[in-house]
Each structure stands twice: as C-alpha cells, then as structure tokens.
Specification:
Keywords: Signal. With 146 residues, this protein is an alpha+beta fold. The protein has one domain. The chain contains two helices and ten strands, in the order H-E-E-E-E-E-H-E-E-E-E-E. The strands form two sheets. Strands 1, 2, 3, 9 and 10 form a five-stranded antiparallel sheet that branches. Strands 4, 5, 6, 7 and 8 form a five-stranded antiparallel sheet that branches. A hairpin with a 5-residue loop joins strand 4 and strand 5. The chain starts with a helix and ends with a strand.
C-alpha cells in the first residue's frame, strides 16, 4: 500500500509541475519603474537622468567633468516588489557621492518616497552651507513600452 501512495504522489506532483509551466506562458509582462531625476550641488546643475529600474538591482550613475574625470556618483536602490504591489508610491534610496583624493565620499543619502506621477524635491545644506538638491519623478510602465 505504501508503494502505491508514493507513486500517486509523484504523478500528482508531475501533473502540477506541467500545469504550472503552461500557466507561466500566459503571464502578462511585469511593470517597470521609470525614474527621472536631476541633481544639483552648489551652483553645478548636473544633467537630468531618465532610467528604468528593474529587479531590485541598484543603479549607479557617474558624472564626469570636462576633462573626463569622475566628480559625482549617485547610487540608487528601490524595493521593486513592494513598489509594484503598492502601485501608487515607492521609496527610492539614493547615495550621493563626490570623488575626492581617489575615493568616493558620501555627501548625503536621502530616501525619497514618491507618489507615482507627482514630482518630488529635496533640498539640504551641508556644514559649509553648500546647497544640494535632488528632484525627481516616478512612473510605472509595463515592459512592452520601454
């Protein structure tokens, strides 16, 4: 009797596996987070960036001066799964860094929560009274519109 139960379990498991594979072929494409932001440090207005964030992978954007030397870097991370589930808001973690003495020094690391489709802006001053501002906007689009 035990051998027959074991064979039945294997058959049912195989059936479920095949059923799951057939279902996966009909899934709709997952939406992606489209993020636009601009960074300004002091009087330097750096170029606006438009990007698509996927699969909780951090993004790394480096700004260069006219002599092709790195000056600023922005590292971005987002909780992709939670953002898509909520659909109306998303928290994006930034690390704004400056290149000094052959090393990256973090200037500030804001976490900004955006409502989809509404722009947001953060402005702070450091100890030397240098203004740093970060403004951006988040949108959700499916992968067929990238």
């Amino acid at each position: 009797m035990l051998n027959n139960w074991y064979k039945s379990t294997l058959f049912i498991s195989s059936f479920c596996f095949c059923f799951g594979s057939a279902q996966a072929a009909n899934e709709t494409p997952e939406p992606n987070l489209k993020y636009e932001f601009a960074l300004q440090v002091g009087t330097e207005a750096l170029h606006e960036v438009k990007m698509t964030l996927k699969d909780e992978q951090p993004a790394d954007i480096t700004y260069y001066d006219e002599k092709n030397r790195p000056i600023y870097r922005v590292v971005i991370n987002v909780d992709y799964e939670q953002s898509i589930k909520r659909g109306k808001e998303s928290t994006i973690k930034h690390s704004i860094q400056k290149y000094e003495n052959n090393d990256w020094v973090e200037l500030f690391s804001p976490e900004m929560t955006y409502l989809v489709g509404l722009p947001g802006k953060l402005e702070i001053y450091n100890e030397e009274m240098v203004r740093m501002s970060l403004s951006g906007e988040l949108a959700i689009a499916d992968s067929t519109h990238l």
